[in-house]
């Protein structure tokens, strides 16, 4: 297409000079116009071709330069955007750092204030506890003094009561011993003495008022027979009395309904065991 354009221009120039020859192209390109019969100036054609190549190269270079400039501008824009973004990020980081520093400073101030409040409250609490302990110590000393006085008075009262109880116990023991000796010597207990009878428990020296059981009475009988039997130096009358009392006790266990004469306490004991009523 470039060659055809050059040929067309050459033909137009020749026609303007008055030449009658028709241009004819010797390059045999399709659609090319023929050059004049005298031939074409090949130097001029080469110059035209060189000029066309130069222009094409210039346009190509211009396009490449424009593309490079566009690319460089795009890169510059990218770099500038990157720098702006980096600057914005730096500003954001600095702002975040300042905010964090402010928060940390505020936290430190608040922590210091809270620590000072805790220390003050702790000192006040320690002072209150000290005063409370001093008052408690004073009260404890007073209570100890009062307790010592009460203990001393209580010990004195206990000692008086102990002496009183000991004396009462001694007197009671003396009365009981005298009563037992009187019963053993007379062979009667309180109930039998009121009726003028002899109690078999008194004869056997068993505790009728304590509701002695069969084993206890039997033990008392054997104990008496150890020194009241005639072979052991006792009298026949005493041995017979003890034996009769023990026989009466043995028979009374099975013959209560027959109305044998017994001690009142033994009758009550047996009635309670048989009927359930005293």
Automatic annotation (TrEMBL):
SUPFAM superfamilies: Chaperone J-domain. Residues 51-110 are annotated as: Disordered. It comes from Tribonema minus. InterPro entries: DnaJ_domain, J_dom_sf. Residues 1-21 form the signal peptide. It comes from the Eukaryota. Residues 199-276 form the J domain. Keywords: Signal. Coiled coil: none annotated. The keyword Signal applies. This is J domain-containing protein.
């Amino acid at each position: 297409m470039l060659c055809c354009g050059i040929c067309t221009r050459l033909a137009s120039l020749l026609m303007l000079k008055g030449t009658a020859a028709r241009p004819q192209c010797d390059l045999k390109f399709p659609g090319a116009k023929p050059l004049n019969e005298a031939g074409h100036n090949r130097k001029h054609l080469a110059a035209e071709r060189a000029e066309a190549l130069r222009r094409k190269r210039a346009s190509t270079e211009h396009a490449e330069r424009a593309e490079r400039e566009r690319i460089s501008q795009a890169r510059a824009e990218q770099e500038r955007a990157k720098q702006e973004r980096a600057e914005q990020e730096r500003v954001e980081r600095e702002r975040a750092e300042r905010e964090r520093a402010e928060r940390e400073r505020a936290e430190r101030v608040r922590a210091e204030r809270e620590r000072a409040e805790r220390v003050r409250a702790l000192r006040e609490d320690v002072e209150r506890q000290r005063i409370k302990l001093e008052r408690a110590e004073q009260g404890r000393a007073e209570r100890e003094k009062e307790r010592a006085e009460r203990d001393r008075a209580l010990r004195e009262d206990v000692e008086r009561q102990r002496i009183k109880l000991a004396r009462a116990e001694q007197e009671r023991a003396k009365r009981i011993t005298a009563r037992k000796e009187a019963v053993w010597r007379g062979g009667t207990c309180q109930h039998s003495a009121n009726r003028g009878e002899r109690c078999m428990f008194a004869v056997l020296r068993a505790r009728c008022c304590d509701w002695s059981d069969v084993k206890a009475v039997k033990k008392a009988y054997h104990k008496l027979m150890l020194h009241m039997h005639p072979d052991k130096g006792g009298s026949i009358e005493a041995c017979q009395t003890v034996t009769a009392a023990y026989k009466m006790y043995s028979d009374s266990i099975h013959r209560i309904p027959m109305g044998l004469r017994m001690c009142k306490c033994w009758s009550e004991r047996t009635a309670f065991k048989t009927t359930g009523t005293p």
